[in-house]
Design brief:
Length: 172
Amino acid sequence: MDYNVSDLLRQPIGTTRDHDVDAEPCLTLDDDLAADVMGGRVRLERTSGGTRASGVVRATVTLPCARCLEPVPAILEIPFEEEFAPSVDPTTGRPLPEPEDDLIFTIDAHQTLHLDEAVRQNLIAALPIQPLCRLDCAGLCPACGSNRNAAPCACVLDEGHRPFAALADLLH
């Protein structure tokens, strides 16, 4: 997801360029999680400080179910809007100081805007907190660890070891 913005940086403030976001089969989100970007749209707009990238990206991420740990495909459509500042002057090629704001991404010395990191951060923020394979997921047995969605287990749970068992008496 790289876009050459050398021409855009020489245009007046407010000039825009629209682009399709190409599919990217594996965008690494963290050590053990990846997203498949299916596509989207991005609008690059010339601003006084550089370029604003805004748009929508569609992606799929396979997450473990919060109850049974089975894989759950999550289809996300995330809107994003990020600022990018040039690292070199677009007309002279001289290096520019780093932006003071840590939230602003930089455009590289070849005037290429790399959208991957911005999309990665927005995808991570959009991930469901507790993905479920289905709403009535029975989860794992706390005694034997078997998936109770596949088959019921014969474990007898000792109710005395529950840390909040005393609170149940307050309901009566």
